[in-house]
Each structure stands twice: as C-alpha cells, then as structure tokens.
Specification:
Elements: H1 4-7, H2 17-27, E1 35-39, H3 45-52, E2 61-65, E3 86-95, H4 104-119, E4 125-128, E5 132-136, E6 143-156, E7 159-169, H5 175-178, H6 187-190, H7 196-209, H8 216-224, E8 231-236, E9 239-248, E10 254-258, E11 263-266, E12 270-273
Parallel strand pairs: 1-2
Antiparallel strand pairs: 2-3, 3-7, 4-5, 5-6, 6-7, 8-9, 8-12, 9-10, 10-11
Helix pairs in contact: 4-7, 4-8
Amino acid sequence: MNSKETDNPKATEKDPVFARGEYLTKALKSKGFTSVSWVGETGSTNDDLLEKTSSIDNGGRVLIADFQTSGKGRFDRKWVAEINSALLMSVSFLADAEKVNLGVFASGVAVASCRALHSLGFEQVSIKWPNDIVVETSPIGGQAKLAGVLAQSKLVRTRASVVVGIGINVHPSSIREVITERRVVSLSDLGCPPDRVHLAEVILSNLGDLDFQSPDFWENYRRLSGTIGQDVRVTTHTGVLEGKARDVTHFGSLLLEDYGGDVHEVISGDLVSLRPL
C-alpha cells in the first residue's frame, strides 16, 4: 500500500535530528525547498547557510538547529535560547539584486510565520515592524516578543544570496531571566505549543506558497501588522522619531507621521510602541 504517510512517516522533535531533516526535505520538496537539514548544535544557522552558498546554488536550502552557540539578532544583539526550547531556522534565497528588493525575503518569513501561527490557533500574534513576531500582553500593556527575524546577504557573482533566520520561542525556558530589558513570550505561555518539526513544516509550507512579486504581498503584510495605526518611537542612525505609524511601503519602509504632521519614510530602525503602560 502506497500512501504519503507510509512513504514519508511524519517525524517529531522526539526523533533523531537526521530523521527530522529527511522528513521535512521530502514533505516540502513540492514547495521549492531543495534540502532541509536539522542539527543538534551549531554556531549560527545563518552563518552556516551563507558559507555553503555557491554561484550555482538556487536557494531553497533550510537549516534548523536545536541550539546555537552564537545566535544573532538585529543590531548585533545576541539571540539567546536554551537547547530544544525554540525553533531556530534559516532559509536561503537567491535573487537578482538589481531586480528584487532583497528586504522582501525577511518580510516574507515574518508573513509566513505569522500565518502559520494563526493556522495553529495562535491568532493573537502580529508583526511588529520590520519583522518581529509579537503578542499583545494586555489591552494596555504593550507587546511581548515571540520571535525575531534576521536577514544577511552576500553577492555571488551577479546575484545576491540572502539568508533569513528566525528564532521562535516555543517551550518554557529561563529566557526572561537572561533578557530583562524587554518583554519576551513563548508559545507555551499562549497555549499548547506545537511540535517544532510540525511548526517548521507549516511555516515553510506557507513560505513556499508566497509570491514575493505579487501586488498582494505587502497587502498581506499590512493585514498582519501590529504596528500600522499605532503611536511609536523609532530610533534610527540619525536620531529619534515619534508619531503615528501610517503605512508600510512596497519596499518595506515605515511611513511615520510625526506629531507636527510631517511624514517620514524610515528604512531601518529600532521601534517601540508608545501605548500607555
């Protein structure tokens, strides 16, 4: 008897790491992913994928780890996660840098992750500009960070290799004791956490279905945004802006209207909500 299940028995995070990778590689082949590898420990999944990229690579590689010794966040922050407590995953893309806005890939991972989490019952999550996944902690209590996204790139001949990493807090850990300067949350705080193999499969399936060139792409991002319409403060390399987040452009920039009525296009910055605590 031939069936999808007998041909590719579903793996869980209790299986050996090689079995998880083999299962996901077969399950996601039709979504455009060429290989999915899962390892017990590495320095940084982003660094590993970037190092493996070659001029003949077409992207579509995925690397997942149970633990990172040198995990990275935005603005050179260190990403901290205990072993087996988070989904630590990086995905490679290859694109013509002159034709494609490379920032779209990080936003795509955020959109795919947010959609996946909604489908798994975590409908309270949203995207904090540019690409963090957050949860409203209470009606007036601000946001707690569930996941972070980091994109890195390098030129490979005439093309750009982009690697996007995401770290999602899944199981309980002592992360709050390590990161005391900002609020963090895990899926276990919100409900019954999914198996990390299943979570990776659902996210990558959603990612494989995205059309990065479609006019609907940024509409999907806007629908999932927890930033648009909010009063925010953004710290950039030139200073600090405060005002209302009005929109996100098709390049991923934030349009912020300050309290004097002037609209600023913010390409990059560190954003916090100004909702009352």
